[in-house]
Fold this sequence. Notes:
By secondary structure, the protein is an all-alpha fold.
Amino acid sequence: MYQLWDTRTRAMSATESKLQEEAATVYQAFSLLDEMLVIFHSEDTTFCRVAGLTLMKARNLAQGILSLSLDGIAQEAGALLRPLIECIELIEYFRKDPKRMDKALENRLPSAGEIGKRIHGEFRKLRAYLNDHASHFSLKPQSVSHLIDFTSGDWKVIQPYNGRVLRTNMTTLFAVFVRLLFAAANCLAYYELLTDSLEDRLNAFKKRGYTIFVGIPHE
């Protein structure tokens, strides 16, 4: 059974050496989100409760994605990325019209795709890709390419550690985190709960992250 955690062990070692900066940036994203959750929890309003619970769900999904990435099975993490994206768009949907939370509490929200349309969301193509290749089981080549060595025909029962792939997955997680954190910050700002200090640290986090994870569109 020791092989089960070999990939994670090597990945964790990399986060303390070659991928230390990348890992520290992702950890900071969690820290900033946790700080904002404290603010949402301190406010006794329907908006802050619903938004806060949505953000906590998003946090758990992000942690799951990171965990699966460390295990070398980030393809399967795509099943978590889709609902994480839905959380981000839902936060924006609520911010633009807080009365929509009433429908959420009554379990009468529109579909995720419809919510994305109403807020002019940027994730339509990504959602479609995840729907085809990650969110549901499929034997399409794009869905199983990580399971088979097409050169030899061997099955990859254990996903080996790959530093380049781990960095790519951390880059994706950072990019999604930027959207999540600033969606949360916009909610706090809407109710004048966003402090100058927190806003400055969010902007500094984003700026530094873009220097570490090169190649991510800034907007």
